[in-house]
Structure prediction request, 493 residues.
Amino acid sequence: MTVLIVLPHGSVAAVADYYESIKQDPVKLRQFLQQFPKGGDLHNHLSGAVYAESYLQWASEDGKCIDLKTNVITPPPCDGTISLKQLMADGSTQPLEPIIDALSVRNFERRSVSGHDQFFATFSRFQTAALGRFGDMVAEARQRAGRQNMLYLELMISLGMLDVIRLAASSGRLDAPFGERIDHAKVDEIVSQVITQFDAIEARQQRLLGCNEQSQTSAVGCDVTVRFQAQVLRTFAPIEVYAQTLLAVKLMQADARVVALNFVAPEDHRIALRDYHQHMQFVAELSAAFPAEPAGITLHAGELTLGLVPPENLGWHIRDAIETAGATRIGHGIDIAYDSNMDELLKSMALKDILVEINLTSNDVILGIKDAAHPLPTYLEYGVPVTLATDDEGVSRIDLTHEYQRAVTTYDLNYQQLLYFARNSLQYSFLPGASLFSTTLSATVVDACAATSVGSREIDKGCADFLAASPKATLQWELETRLSRFAARFFQP
Ligand SMILES: [Zn+2]
Prediction:
């Protein structure tokens, strides 16, 4: 594995030494990585981020029900199903363990279901519990991030997508001229409704966490910045995917909280495979017609493997996402080895600065790809930017610290590589503004801040002006401050 970062001296050398000394000790390593400032999580589906226990608790409070044969949570009334309030009451003899297993991948290997099928089956089981609880869900994700010394979350959410699918199904026409395929006025109405929903989500999660901007509260999670990606469900008819993509680009234009679009649902689904290239064309056409700033395009691409799909479906999705749709980030990127010219593609990804969001546990559970079969070392070797992400931390029963630990244990990472992953999670975030680093590989700071000691509290005017104009660089500065503080703990002069 190529390591291009120069080892600095002083406290960073001390923390790197300590890290090397405890790397083989899972207990001390967990503690170290939990406290290590990790930047952000760039690939995190909000509904999959929530643990089953929370869904059951909220569904119980909201009077919802569960079908114990299918483990599907249903809305009231509980006809032929069981009230979750009753089921979860003190003294109830109904065990919750099998339900929690059904709502996640916990213990899936003990059952006769593949990780892939179990993983994707969970979402329809808990989706009713999520309704009306999006603010609670964001609060949970944010609090968990805060406890792990994280600063940023880019959460994927499908607000308004089902509404626009209904609109497209009733009146959309893909063969009509551009601008007449969907009723834009009706899509704009949905945009307004989604913005209202975002307002309500934001207010609720702030209240739940106890954040108060005036008092600079220190409640856990309040210092975690949240932005959203509009997630398009790609297993629908072409006009319905088109309409969702339109909604996504309009949301990015209309609301600064929505910084990107993404395409989700199993990439190996019949429709996702059949329409993949057409979907990339939708993204290209609509992102050009409705330019936004930031214009984040990140796409799940190459979350496939031989056997799961026929070979003809392998080896071109990553390239198509970059070259046709204009994606600047890729989620997963597992099937790169099947590309007709992997060497050329990897070099061009490094050149174009395309980040790959790496989801180690998810790839193991869903695709059975892990250890040496995972392309992470290849991406590192070619200098393609990467960062670690959780994908669905609730469903997978993990957190971001776990993914760092898994990466360290599997690939014997050094401390400089941990810094690289953490820095990339902000450098390649879709937060607006210029980046602090001209390159994270060597941690080279842009000219405006080159004269100031990075992360320090004393900042010269040129750098202060630069930071003030860039929300992204401001958060990056905070990460550097935390990294310095973290490293100083290990330094004995
Ligand atoms: Zn994902």
The pocket of zinc ion is lined by residues 43, 45, 300, 331, 391 (CB under 6 Å).
